[in-house]
Structures are given as structure tokens and as C-alpha cells.
Design a protein that fits this description.
six-stranded antiparallel beta sheet, 8 strands, 83 residues, two-stranded antiparallel ribbon, mainly beta
Length: 83
């Protein structure tokens, strides 16, 4: 996998198609990548104690690396990583 942590990538498919972001985590064995601020999921947390309110937490979910393209910082062009 040619995508590394802190690389800038562009999403090619899905609900966030065309958006760019920075890579937070990489799971090479599963071929998955987590991108900052993109592919956000919401997790609902129940209140633990009386009087406490429940919460909604947004977190970036993992995306298949085949659906990403590296963004060249110098030329602002994209390049799909070789598999």
C-alpha cells in the first residue's frame, strides 16, 4: 500500500466523492484508511448516570484504499496508488 499516515488523499467514490483530507490511520493488512473529517459516522452514547445526558459522537470510519487517490502537494494533481 502506497498511502501513508499524514498523506493528502482525494476520495474517488461514495458520499464524500471529490473531497480531500489528511490520512489519520492506515491498516495495511485490511487495505483500509481513515481520513480526517471525511466518511464520518455517528455513534450514540447512552447516559451512564442519573441526570447525565446522552451524546452523539462523530468519528471518521475506515475507507477502502482503492477508493482513494494520492494528491501531489506541489502540482495539486491526483494519482491512484499502484496495487
Amino acid at each position: 500500500m502506497n498511502i501513508k499516515k499524514n498523506d493528502n488523499v482525494k476520495i474517488l467514490t461514495g458520499k464524500d466523492k471529490g473531497k480531500t483530507g489528511k490520512v489519520l490511520q492506515v491498516m495495511p493488512a485490511a487495505n483500509r484508511v481513515s481520513v480526517e473529517g471525511l466518511n464520518l459516522l455517528i455513534k450514540h452514547l447512552r447516559p451512564r448516570r442519573d441526570g447525565e445526558k446522552g451524546q452523539r459522537i462523530e468519528f471518521p470510519a475506515f475507507i477502502n484504499a482503492a477508493n482513494l487517490a494520492l494528491v501531489c502537494s506541489e502540482m495539486r494533481s491526483t494519482d491512484t496508488s499502484g496495487f
